[in-house]
Amino acid sequence: MMNGASVDRATAVAVGRPALRWGAVVRSLRGGLKGGEYTWAVAFVVPYIAVFLAFVAYPVVYGLWMGSEAGLYRELFADPIYQSTVVNTVLYLALGVNVKMFLALLLSGFFMRPGWWMKALLLIFVLPWAVPQISTFISIHWMLNGEWGFLNNVLYTLFRVEGPHWLNDRWMALGAVIVSHIWKWTPFWTLILLAGRMAIPLEIRDTARVDGATGLRGFVHITFPLLANLYLICTLLSTIFLLGDFNTVTFVSGGGPANTTHVLATLGIRNAFEIAHPRLGVAAVMSALPLVIPLVIVLMRKLRTAEVQL
Amino acid sequence: MSTITAEARLSSRAAARAHSAVRRRRYLSNAGTLVLSAALVVWTLAPIYNMVLISLEPEGDVFTDHIWPRVASVESFWGVLTQGHWYLEHFWHQFANSLYIGVMVTFFALLFGSLTSFAIGRMRLRHGWLVSNAALLTYVIPASFLAIPFYRIMQNYGLANNPWSVIAALVAFATPYAIFVFQEYGRSIPIEVDESARIDGASPVQVYLRIYLPLMAPALVAVGTYALLLAWNEYLYQFLLLSSKSSMTVPVALAQFLSSDQSPWNYMMATAIIYALPPIAIYYAFRRRMTAGLTMGGVKG
């Protein structure tokens, strides 16, 4: 139980009171909790720790082990599909995250306007977020069909223009994926930024208005500095979520045409299950680690100090 | 005298000019609001309108070029509800599977999340921060990145095609958010409430059941809704782990529709709408609680 040194010290410092010493050690381990309470507290956290170890920590270690051969990465980097996937992922991240967050920032200001009309509009506006991804992405996929899709039907009916086959071209298909992502997730981030704006005390706004900070100047000098931290956290979180996004690409473009619109998350699954090379799939996902690790570190620091409103 | 009236006239003219400028600006701003609102409505509803449009087409009519339903028919909805098409033979079974997974994930995420945050936040368990950090780390790891090793592990355990493999994965990914929200929300409840109960002789379990859970009700509703929707909307893990006829869920069946050559598109869209109705209803019913609870967390994609 105790090692030699601490037994020595215990006997030297507190001769004849070993029981008290032992009690102190146990107390320091338990915090302020008494015996029975400590047992209960441990029993309360054990289920979650078990879930974490079995279904998060173990898969992480297993994945690291699967993707630990250097040869895999030579094979991966030589793959032309992988090379275009990296380009797609970077574009998807850069445009998907930033356009969406910027729109959300603007729209959250728009929805601050008073009136029942704004409230009603907000109810409609959040619909993309409330409808499941699979339903809407399947619908968008069919909308973009070159021959019978809704979009081309509208173009023809209104303007007599024959629309292109949207999903048969790499860049248009990738664009469709990015726009679908923006369509689906802008409402969610708008709501969060709207909550952030609502949390700014009215006195600050009123004082600023009296001092002449209205419109754009009010936004630059008052609103944005107060929202900046929230905006940064949202951007980082949204980057991580988007990096792990599997559904948008799978259902809107399906990775096609000819595997040119994959992102890392879908390429991993494709390598693992379509060409039955799981280790190559893990390697594809692992190649995102140089981006994921710094993001995770920054986010963990930010989120630990963040305040949650409920 | 005359100077005063001149001044007054001048100032009243300036006031009128200023007034009309204000009115013009308000008019422009109203017009801008109207245009932007209309654009937002069209943008938001287009894919949803497309879904409804196709689901209302009679079966042979899908491949046409009109942009409103010529003959609205609810045949496809009826087909889904009565499992009338060979593609939809197991619809209600799949629906039940989705519901079962959703309810189980909600229950366990709430149970484990509230127990953990009670032990860490209220009982002040030593080294509790290690557990909350593990939870936070899980929250920021993309779930899809762990899908391949998770699949292998479940194969090794012999849990393929078992709904519990998906429940385990989703509980593992939903509980961190629960812990996060519960701990933050718990800070608003004074610790003296627990302490006085304990002085009166209540055991930790009694404090948890009789005091902690009732006071946490708003957070429980917010997180429960989140977990239920997460499980209902999740696709990747269900696709990898539930491929047999008896274990399949609605999103997996929908995706199978998409990959087949002769998709009956009207039935597929009707299925997609019926599958979307429960989350929409839940969302609008618990809207206030959800928008309150998501300020920092969010629905993981």
3D structure, described in words:
The complex is a heterodimer of chains A (310) and B (301). By secondary structure, chain A is an all-alpha fold. Chain A has 3 domains: 1-31, no CATH class; 33-66; 71-305, MetI-like (MetI-like fold), CATH 1.10.3720. Chain A contains 16 helices and no strands. The longest helix of chain A has 32 residues, at 35-66. Chain A is flat and about 65 Å long. Mean pLDDT of chain A is 84; it is low at 1-19. Chain B is an all-alpha fold and 301 residues long. Chain B has 2 domains: 1-44; 81-293, MetI-like (MetI-like fold, Orthogonal Bundle), CATH 1.10.3720.10. The longest helix of chain B is centred in the N-terminal third of the chain and has 54 residues, at 2-55. The radius of gyration of chain B is 28 Å and the shape is flat. The interface between A and B is large, with 102 and 107 residues.
Broad structural category of chain B? mainly alpha
The backbone outline of chain B, from C-alpha atoms, is: flat
Overall radius of gyration of chain A: 27 Å
Largest β sheet strand count, sense and barrel closure of chain A: none
Helix-strand sequence of chain B: HHHHHHHHHHHHH
Quickly name the level 1 CATH class of the largest domain in chain A. Answer: Mainly Alpha
Amount of helix of chain A: over 70%
Classify the fold: give the CATH topology of the largest domain in chain A: MetI-like fold
Low-confidence stretches of chain A: 1-19
| Rg value of chain B | 28 Å
